[in-house]
Amino acid sequence: MKREKGLLIVLSGPSGVGKGTVRKALFSQEDIELQYSISMTTRQPREGEVDGVDYFFRSREKFEQLIKENRLLEWAEFVGNYYGTPVDYVRETIESGKDVLLEIEVQGAMQVKEVFPEGVFIFLVPPSLSELRSRIVGRGTETEDVIHNRMQMAKEEIDLMDAYDYVVENDKVEFACNRIKAIVQSEHCRRDRVAKLYKSLTEVE
Ligand SMILES: Nc1nc2c(ncn2[C@@H]2O[C@H](COP(=O)(O)OP(=O)(O)O)[C@@H](O)[C@H]2O)c(=O)[nH]1
Ligand SMILES: Nc1ncnc2c1ncn2[C@@H]1O[C@H](COP(=O)(O)OP(=O)(O)O)[C@@H](O)[C@H]1O
Predict the structure, then answer these.
(1) Where are the beta strands (DSSP E) in the chain?
(2) Quick check: CB of 21 below 6 Å from ligand 2?
């Protein structure tokens, strides 16, 4: 059955839970095809991050200009930096029938939900808060101050996980990845079934 539109999948979760790791694992699988929406940010690149691959790294002036021009589907300020989703890529991808994945924090996810309630909203959780802290510390990319701020943010974000359609535990990367794959496959089946039923019930006799 030909799909009219692709799924818009939003993946959120506290900093350090493993969103990037799980996303990379998902993109390496052959039985699922997703397109990644590269976000724009004003934060400094971390070691090894590449402009146009991990993020579009831009100045605050440029970012504010794009906000004014309505070229972001959503945007948010997170721990002192702007983050946002360029709207054109997302629109073009789903219109062409492909699924697109946005890895964004909760304020942005709630904005997407307002304009795109038919999206699939997934919240990734750690097995515990102490494991979350160990993962952030273990990554070694943040100072103690930033780690503290991100742990505070994590608690606030976890309070909002009820607003998501699915909550997925990232105990092991492979398990989390399989859970997300199962969600995407079942969402496809559900939507195809509804579309088929709708067609059969609305066709003129
Ligand atoms: N609203 C919004 N959040 C984003 C976007 N891109 C990334 N984020 C989120 O911003 C937060 C900080 O990202 P980052 O500085 O890369 O650190 P991370 O938490 O280690 O991934 C994370 O929760 C990301 O998911 C975006 O385009 N919009
Ligand atoms: N399931 C997991 N078990 C143990 N460590 C993990 C797991 N998932 C991710 N990590 C590690 O946790 C750290 C943070 O992961 P990352 O993908 O950068 O998180 P996020 O993108 O959510 O900020 C990384 O060092 C990563 O290797």
Answers:
(1) 8-12, 34-36, 40-41, 56-57, 72-78, 81-86, 99-103, 120-125, 166-169
(2) yes
Interval between CA 196 and ligand 1 midpoint (Å): 37
pLDDT by residue for the chain (205 residues), tens digit each? 456 799 999 999 998 999 999 999 999 999 999 999 999 999 999 999 999 999 999 999 999 999 999 999 999 999 899 999 999 999 999 999 999 999 999 999 999 999 999 999 999 999 999 999 999 999 887 888 988 988 998 999 999 999 999 999 999 999 999 999 999 999 999 999 998 999 899 987 6
- For atom 23 of ligand 2, the residue with the nearest CA is 16
Q: Is 17 in the pocket of ligand 2 (CB under 6 A)?
A: yes
The domain ranges of the chain are 8-37+98-202
What architecture (CATH level 2) is domain 8-37+98-202?
3-Layer(aba) Sandwich (3.40)
Pocket flag, ligand 2, residue 141 (CB < 6 Å): no
